[in-house]
Write a structure and sequence with these properties.
Largest sheet: 2 strands, antiparallel
Radius of gyration: 23 Å
Distance between the termini: 60 Å
Helix content: 55-70%
Shape: elongated
Strand content: under 5%
Number of strands: 2
Order of helices and strands: HHHEEHHHHHHHH
Mean pLDDT: 85
Strand order of the largest sheet: 1-2
Structural class: mainly alpha
Length: about 250
């Protein structure tokens, strides 16, 4: 006897179908950044839908930060570039909901950041990239701006490493822990800034020479020391607690 599944197939709502079509056009560049979408009347006619359904589709795309809707006689919807902060905020909410500990996030960074040095070592333009990164070390690493300089260094590193998915993932992860990182480095000293320049400079020199394995291994060890420090000073602290007060 053949069993028949009773699982129901969910049929997408009209607004979801319209949002999907417009989303595809935006991400493919068929509707360029800053370009207005067709008028509401034109879109209603094109899709054969009502104004409420179209505006629901707009709300979906607004929540994804793919369009900006301006009200008034000269208003309308315009395509905008997706914001990594949207993904970061959602990732942060999930981490808070799942009670992820701050130490776990720093462990993830301890194994993630070394990938940047490994990839840089394989990049054909690594000498040029290393020069840019060394400028950040020399000009921005001081006691007052150490947290921002650290983020700037690794943002530039992943941008130069030549792997866009890793660059985006690092950007999202940094957004999630950025404020906690800044708080942890608030009382940094000239000595701390000097040490940061030194250890990052060593990892960078190894990558510039093409020794990605050595650069990656060296930075992993440095980050695992940070993990031990976070575990000692923030034992059991979750992402919910880390974002309290912000």
């Amino acid at each position: 006897m053949v069993s028949v599944s009773t699982d129901r197939v969910r049929v997408p709502k009209t607004a979801e179908v319209v949002a999907h079509t417009l989303r595809t056009q935006i991400v493919r560049g068929e509707i360029a950044e800053g370009e207005p979408l067709p008028s509401e009347s034109a879109l209603m006619e094109r899709f054969g839908i009502s104004r409420p359904s179209l505006r629901e589709a707009f709300r979906i795309l607004e929540s994804e930060r793919l369009i900006e809707v301006r009200r008034g006689s000269r208003g309308g919807a315009r395509a905008i570039r997706p914001d990594i902060g949207v993904a970061a905020r959602y990732l942060g909410v999930i981490m808070q909901f799942d009670q992820v500990e701050l130490k776990e996030v720093f462990v993830a960074r301890a194994y993630f950041e070394p990938l940047g040095f490994r990839l840089l070592a394989q990049a054909p333009n690594r000498a040029e990239a290393a020069a840019e990164l060394r400028t950040i070390l020399e000009e921005r690493f001081d006691a007052e701006h150490l947290a921002e300089a650290y983020v700037s260094f690794f943002t530039a590193l992943f941008a130069r490493a030549g792997n866009r998915p890793l660059e985006l993932l690092y950007g999202a992860l940094t957004e999630v822990v950025g404020r906690e990182l800044a708080d942890a480095i608030t009382d940094s000293t000239d000595s701390a800034a000097s040490t940061a320049r030194k250890v990052l400079g060593k990892a960078l020199s190894l990558a510039e020479k093409g020794d990605g394995a050595a650069a990656s291994e060296f930075w992993t060890k440095q980050m695992l020391q940070v993990v031990d420090s976070v575990g000692e000073h923030h034992a059991g602290k979750t992402m919910v607690e880390a974002t309290d007060g912000y």
